[in-house]
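[recover] target loaded
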């Protein structure tokens, strides 16, 4: 970003609506943004956000010492260190998080030749975001994409603020936990192209129905300007009627249904990945597990074609693609094969994970599912947990259920004819993760799936530790 004309101290002040507590000098040279002094790079503007565990105002001095150019604070009583480095400025705003979003939106309005691709959906957002990035970079285009799952009102502006002069694209993930969030993000993103990967039962407690979930996700498509592009999953519920309301936007529906504009056929799963044919004339392969990833990849292909990237370049990029962490991530520890899909969970993603696990665990001595609680389901929670437990009984030989719904899931497993006595673990705290790990043995294939808050990846850590100790 060196030489980027966007980055001036006055531009930061104007965009955030702040006032100087410590004024900038000619040496003040902002260049990017950060909310974490542990990863802050020289020149970045440090936003002192208040979190559940800490308060960024405590680290203003640390940010200055690390080379930050400006600290954005909201606390009137924030203690400004007396020995600030030359050129370090302090800007006070009413709301640091809101100021970050406003700066990201201002950065987006200043883009010249950079196309914004925004990705949302109940499932598959992060994988599709990274597939789009891989496909575009495979075509020789320079750009950036959301880090990890930076998909909220903090992560989206941080992604927009990474864009450099000369970039051709930025791919931003957009998520929601409650009504209105996508509209807020879409207003900042102003996407040239939107992708809707799926509509499912995520955060249904906040929305109440699939129709409302779809309408929330579709706010991203409503923000696409005339002549822009919407790529959407034609197999997803509720979307066809919404797509029909768009005017002036190019739309491409991908999916297995006959109504899809680009139909996915001949899906073949293997322990090494999934292959498929798109629109009857192009064969693609991904080193990712699960037939649902064919739709994610088809979305990425549609975007890449719109950028003019040849299919062969996309195929090469897909061949080198590595899945984001904890999305059906394969590990082998002490003769146990783990499919770590523990990043998050809702009923539809669990069912997709079970389907992928069924194909990937062929030949295992024993197939074990470790399923944890799915959160934010409201009144649908009990039925949803029984549903996935019944589905697990058709796939696995043994089960471990984690969380407050473990007993309900165990009952549904038995009612569906599941074998053995499923283990029930109320929490992974206080040795719970070690207890689950102790139930696994060499030759097992294991699926780990639960909502993020449960931290089911601790089972992998417990296995790693136990194996290290055994050596």
């Amino acid at each position: 970003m060196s030489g980027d004309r966007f980055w001036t101290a006055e531009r930061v002040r104007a965009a955030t609506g702040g006032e100087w507590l410590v004024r900038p000098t000619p040496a003040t040279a902002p260049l990017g943004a950060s909310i974490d002094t542990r990863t802050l790079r020289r020149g970045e503007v440090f936003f002192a956000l208040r979190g559940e565990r800490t308060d960024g105002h405590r680290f203003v001095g640390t940010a200055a010492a690390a080379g930050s150019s400006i600290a954005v604070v909201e606390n009137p009583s924030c203690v400004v260190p007396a020995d600030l480095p030359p050129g370090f400025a302090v800007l006070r705003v009413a709301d640091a998080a809101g100021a970050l979003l406003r700066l990201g939106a201002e950065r987006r309005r200043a883009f010249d030749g950079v196309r914004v691709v925004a990705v949302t959906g109940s499932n598959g957002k992060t994988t599709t975001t990274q597939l789009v990035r891989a496909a575009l970079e495979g075509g020789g285009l320079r750009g950036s994409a959301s880090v990890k799952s930076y998909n909220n009102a903090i992560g989206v502006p941080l992604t927009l603020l990474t864009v450099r002069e000369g970039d051709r694209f930025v791919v931003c993930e957009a998520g929601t936990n409650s009504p209105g969030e996508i509209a807020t993000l879409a207003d900042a993103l102003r996407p040239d192209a939107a992708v809707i990967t799926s509509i499912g039962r995520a955060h249904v407690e906040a929305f109440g129905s699939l129709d409302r979930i779809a309408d929330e996700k579709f706010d991203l498509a409503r923000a696409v300007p005339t002549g822009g592009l919407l790529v959407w999953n034609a197999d997803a519920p509720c979307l066809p009627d919404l797509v029909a309301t768009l005017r002036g936007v190019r739309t491409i529906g991908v999916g297995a249904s006959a109504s899809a504009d680009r139909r996915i056929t001949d899906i073949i799963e293997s322990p090494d990945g999934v292959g498929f044919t798109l629109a009857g004339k192009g064969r693609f392969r991904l080193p990712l597990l699960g037939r649902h990833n064919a739709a994610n990849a088809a979305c990425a292909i549609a975007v890449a074609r719109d950028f003019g990237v040849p299919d062969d370049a996309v195929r090469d990029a897909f061949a080198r693609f590595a899945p984001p962490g904890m999305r059906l991530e394969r590990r082998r520890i002490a003769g146990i094969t783990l499919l770590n899909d523990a990043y998050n969970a809702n009923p539809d993603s669990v069912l997709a994970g079970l389907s992928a696990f069924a194909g990937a665990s062929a030949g295992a001595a024993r197939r074990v599912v470790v399923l944890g609680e799915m959160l934010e389901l409201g009144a649908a929670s009990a039925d949803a947990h029984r549903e996935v437990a019944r589905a697990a009984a058709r796939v696995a030989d043994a089960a471990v259920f984690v969380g407050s719904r473990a007993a309900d899931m165990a009952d549904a497993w038995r009612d569906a004819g599941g074998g053995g006595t499923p283990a029930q673990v109320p929490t992974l705290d206080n040795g719970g993760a070690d207890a689950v790990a102790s139930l696994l043995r060499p030759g097992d294939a294991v699926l780990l799936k639960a909502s993020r808050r449960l931290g089911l990846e601790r089972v992998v850590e417990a296995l790693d530790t136990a194996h290290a100790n055994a050596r």
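[recover] notes: The two ends are 48 Å apart (CA to CA).
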